Amino acid sequence: MSPADTAKPAKAASKAASKSAPKKVAKAKTAVPKVKKTEPKVKKTEPKAKKAVAKTRKAVAPQFKAGQSLDIDDQQITVGKSFSDNAKMTMRNIDVYYGDKQAIHDVSIDIAKNEVMAMIGPSGCGKSTFLRTLNRMNDTVEGCRVEGDICMDGENLYAPKLDVVELRARVGMVFQKPNPFPKSIYENVAYGPKIHGLADSRVDLDEIVENSLRKASLWEEVKERLHQPGTGLSGGQQQRLCIARAIAVSPEVILMDEPCSALDPIATAKIEELIEELSENFTIAIVTHSMQQAARVSHRTAYFHLGKLIEVNPTEQVFTMPEHQLTEAYITGRFG
Amino acid sequence: MNKSADNLSKIKRSLTRRNRAEARFQWYGRVAIFIGLAAVAVLFIDIIGKGHGAFQATYIKLNVSYDQDLLGIENLSDPEQLMMGNWDAVPKVALREKFTDVSGRRDKRRLNGLLSNGAGFDLKDRLLANPQLLNTTESIWLLADDDIDTYYKSWLDGEAYAARLSDKQVVWIDQLHEQGLIRLQLNTNLFTRGDSREPEQAGIRGAVMGSLLTLVLTLILSFPIGVSAAIYLEEFAPKNKWTDFIEVNINNLAAVPSIIFGLLGLAIFINFFHVPRSVPIVGGLVLTLMTLPTIIITSRAAIKSVPPSIREAALGMGASKYQMVLHHVLPLALPGMLTGAIIGMAQALGETAPLLMIGMVAFIVDIPGSFTDPATVLPVQIFLWADSPERAFIEKTSAAIMVLLSFLIIMNTSAVWLRKRLERRW
User: Fold this and answer.
1) CB of B239 within 8 Å of any CB in chain A?
2) B205-422, superfamily in CATH?
3) pTM score, whole prediction
4) N or C terminus of chain B with fewer C-beta within 10 Å?
5) DSSP state, A324?
């Protein structure tokens, strides 16, 4: 306990200093305390972790030198294959702060085209926060600040001239709790196309609604009652309605924030099936608490721990031969 | 084993204690509710007991003749002649024909005092509506004077109050009663006339219209302003010390004594902007100032109660903040806002003090027809009547209170109904 306590003031001081300094310099300055403060924190949850971190840092360092030509900070502790040649979204050195509290530390990762990227990790590890930076939903949170570069197809999402409305039409989102509008099923799905002016006529709109509901494999269940309230559906149907609503504007990326955590196993299975189908047309990033779900639906899995990205690897590898000891500890159920 | 048995007996003992404490606690609540209900019941019983009489008025049946010579008019369509006509003579003559044995000035005056001094004008209205009655005779119920009214009602109740009457008048009323020529009728004057110095002719129509005009203006002004302010503060304004400061001040405004708003209205609207005094415009403006904080506070609460998941859903779909508010937050918050507005209006309807400061306490006989006509409002009318010395105004006051309370009950019930009806579950 005591090392953590003593480490904190030092951290605060170094951060205060780094705020005013230019970014590159700041990184160098904070470099030393950054690693140090990880150790006591990890120690709290997992006694073996201290050694593990030290060990992996040694083990990982050569791999970074050999593997990637991308701009990698030497304090990067992420192991595995974070980057992709066919990237849809590229995130570099992302830091997210809530007021003075840093929630995400220096995360760099790519999400490839048409891949399903699962983000797992213990509660409060920042995976949802990270997901929400991808469509700037964090803008709505008071005191939230995002640093670093997030690009989609090479376009910076945090560029001042970029309109979030346009961004969110391109990056759809499905939330943890099914949240259909208290309107009819039809209006729920038609809302996005309507506000973005995607449909030229009523017939167009009907078609979009039908297609979206079909893609969300909900059409057969609701085609008879399109004009009844969406809130009257079951939980699983509501979540699929939300997915239909998200894909109605034909986004390029769909973000899913624990989409099945409020659903029963059968509804979950349907959504998982759906995710697989959707990955043919969309790029999907999904945050999940269920490791089995990540194993079932995703192509690559990213493991977050205390606001840091620990490991990114093909899903199979993460669940069979994790590179990092923390990942292994988590997937074998030793904490989290 | 022994220990768990011991624990069990301890739990049992503490359980009876806990149960007793809970029962006591429930009784406190019941007693509190009983006290509240009893207070309301006493209020209602007292007011209804005093005021129910006002919905009836005493009328006396007489044979009146619309004699052209007596009236002194030849042409009913000539306004000047109508104005100069001796309308009072008609009921006086009718009375004298009824009681032929009355002589002497004093007795004649007392005899005339049986009827309201507005009886002649009632006959004028009747004649104008039915011109063919000129120079004919008919038997008609005429409004009695307020003292007669008070006496007759109290006499019917078995506790005759004759202090304002002469012995002869009592005898005449007795005679009329025996002949079935005096009775109580529904008091239509109460609902169709404006204020009057004569209690039997006074009505609340003017005050009700004044209240209505004032409230319409208050609603038109305060609802949009209040809702806009609430939406901006809740959804758009940054949360910083300025918005905190504004919030504190809005709450302060809700607690400012209403008379101060009256003074403010007097200083700003009347003295500075020269809005005419005593008119519903200035009353509406002052009540708007008073109602705004209520509407802002309730609207903000209604907006806050819209679940954040709906906001996220809308924003996640790429709705702009404006679209999110307009399409989703506002429809869901509207029932709460309307409830707040109705409660605010109910408060404004019952407000008296600020209106005293802006001249809406004037004695106004004419029923206001527009926002710029001098008017008074119901609670001020109650204040005025309660202040009047005539005994007959006691029941008028209570009757006006009953009307005001029934408006308030209707408004508050509709607020509850609206909330239940429009409330959506998610």
Assistant:
1) yes
2) MetI-like (1.10.3720.10)
3) 0.78
4) N
5) S
